[in-house]
Design a protein that fits this description.
about 40% strand; alpha+beta; 8-stranded antiparallel beta barrel; single chain; about 30% helix
Length: about 240
């Protein structure tokens, strides 16, 4: 049997993660947001681990006071689909009974393509920032070329924004999106990096210009989150 282990944060770069599932829930209010996190904690903590192919499950609260970001690592799509057939609905039904009316806004599949540290030294992140990049059609080669351009820009930036801890760029398996799961020391550090005096993260370099004007870019959404709950499997 396998029980649940509560962690401080997930290991985003573990080599056995074949895919990542990312979804968003809208709970409506700060109180319902808090209650939904507690319902997830209770439902998942009171059962054996969901599936051997599930490596981690992490829930984040949005700074809008209503949304939740769910990030889970799986060995494969087949493992996830087996969980869907044999247990996902029962867990969600119990969460819905505790917090009726939660709106599930979508679930998408990604593969982690590249990760890197920002700045120097070991620092504990206090904020997660997601940057959801959308392209005008499916093109896996373009996804990866854009991510490579981002890392070239980061590595050559003469004045990187302080407070960044790490960047983990995920390519959607349908070829249309890239999501950067970025860790920052604090939410304020990210807010300061977006100060209107500068207008964007990244210096005015040719490398950042290529990132911002990459062919096929359709739009992006930036959101800030706080890690609320991270769990994994524990053999017993």
């Amino acid at each position: 049997m396998t029980s649940v282990r509560f962690n401080s944060r997930p290991d985003l770069t573990r080599s056995d993660a074949g895919i990542v599932k990312i979804s968003t829930w809208d709970t409506g209010t700060p109180e319902r947001q808090r209650l939904a996190v507690e319902a997830v904690r209770e439902v998942w903590g009171s059962r054996d681990w969901a599936h051997p192919g599930l490596l981690s499950y992490t829930v984040h609260t949005g700074d809008d006071g209503r949304t939740l970001l769910h990030y889970s690592q799986w060995t494969s799509e087949e493992a996830y689909q087996e969980f869907v057939r044999n247990g996902r609905d029962a867990r969600n039904d119990e969460i819905d009974a505790a917090v009726p009316g939660v709106e599930r806004l979508g679930l998408d599949t990604f593969e982690l393509y590249r990760s890197g540290s920002l700045g120097s030294g070991a620092r504990e992140p206090g904020c997660v920032v997601t940057v959801d990049i959308r392209f005008d059609g499916p093109d896996p080669a373009r996804q990866r070329a854009w991510v490579d351009a981002v890392f070239e820009a980061l590595e050559s930036d003469p004045a990187p924004a302080p407070g960044g801890v790490s960047a983990h760029l995920h390519a959607s398996t349908d070829g249309t999106r890239v999501v950067n799961y970025a860790e920052w020391e604090t939410a304020q550090a990210h807010i300061d990096a977006l100060d209107p005096a500068d207008g964007r993260i990244g210096s005015l370099t040719p490398q950042w210009h290529r990132v911002q004007h990459h062919p096929g870019l359709k739009g992006s959404t930036v959101r800030r989150w706080t890690l609320a709950l991270s769990i994994g499997a524990e053999l017993r």
